[in-house]
Amino acid sequence: MNEKYNVYLVSDSTGETLDRIFLSLKSQFANFDYEKKEFAFIRTEQQIDKIIKECIKLENSLILYTIVETKLAKYISNQSGKNNVPCFGILGNLILSFSKLLNQKAIHKPSAQHVLDDDYYKRMEAIQYTMSHDDGKKVDDLSNADVILLGVSRTSKTPTSIYLANRGFKTINIPLILHQKIPQELTSNSKACIVGLIADPERLADIRRNRVAIMKDHKLKEYTDLDFIKKEVNDSKILFKKNNWPIIDVTRRSVEETAASILKIIEIKKNK
User: Fold this and answer.
1) Domains delineated in the chain
2) For 50-78, what is the mean pLDDT?
3) Rounded to whole angstroms, how far apart are CA atoms 9 and 37?
4) Is the model's pTM score more than 0.85?
5) Does residue 114 register a pLDDT over 70?
């Protein structure tokens, strides 16, 4: 049986960066049994003392931290060393390397990435736009979109849209319903990046059956019928190919992977 680790994620900001890094790190180890504890906005030595005191009481404790203030970063490293608690600074060496490369001193300011600059307001505007245009709403407003996603039901259109909005892209997603026409403006829209999403029909059938079970609506026989879904997917492929829209199969992709592919398509479209 594998040992269980107590992982302490300590950040002087929201902890979002650290959490993502840990997510990537743990995915590289198939047999990593752990319990995670997160500590955000850690700004004092007293807070660190409290965390290390807790670590000492538990076996197999380890600390991962993102603390940019130099004095505090040294403090958590020194105190962990004194108490034999493995401790790893995530940003320290990277900031130092960049400082040398750019030949300038880092500001070492916590939450510096969360400043209310133009990029921040662009993201907020994109999120608001995307939420108000979810699932085929306001399709008369296509001209302001950066990205338009099309696909049959349960092809991850909404979560992908939200992810792209968080990256600052105004995104509309439009469900493809059999025998229902798409907005005419789509075929003449040259500004937006239009992408078709598809998935394996059997996988879609499973997802839809689960959804219907949760909704307790057993009238939706066509919605979960495999032959019906195969026709839906096939018709969507024909539509995408007819209009030369890029197609992404989301069957074995996470939302992040799908979004990464869309960002690549946006980049290619921009450079044409």
Assistant:
1) 4-114 (3.40.50), 118-270 (3.40.50)
2) 93
3) 6
4) no
5) no
Own/partner pairs, 256-264, CB within 8 angstroms, 24+ separation = 256/163, 258/156, 258/160, 258/197, 259/160, 259/163, 259/164, 259/167, 262/147, 262/149, 262/160, 262/164, 262/193, 262/195, 263/164, 263/167
Instruction: Give per-residue pLDDT as tens, 130-171.
Output: 999 999 898 878 889 999 999 999 999 999 999 999 899 999
Place of tokens 């019928």: 225
Q: Copy the structure tokens of residue 14.
A: 């929201």
Listing from the earlier edge strand, what are the strands of the sheet with 171-175?
171-175, 147-151, 193-198, 247-249
> Once rounded to an integer, what is the mean pLDDT over residues 257-265?
94
Tell the residue number behind the tokens 């229902």, with chain if given. Answer: 180
Grouping H, G, I as helix, E, B as strand and the rest as coil, residue 181 is: coil
Is the pLDDT reported for residue 64 higher than 70? yes
Give the integer Cα–Cα distance in Å for 248 and 33.
34
Instruction: Answer whether residue 231 shows pLDDT above 70.
Output: yes
Closest-CA residue to 63 (of 38, 32, 86, 92)? 86
The residue assigned the tokens 């902890």 is 15
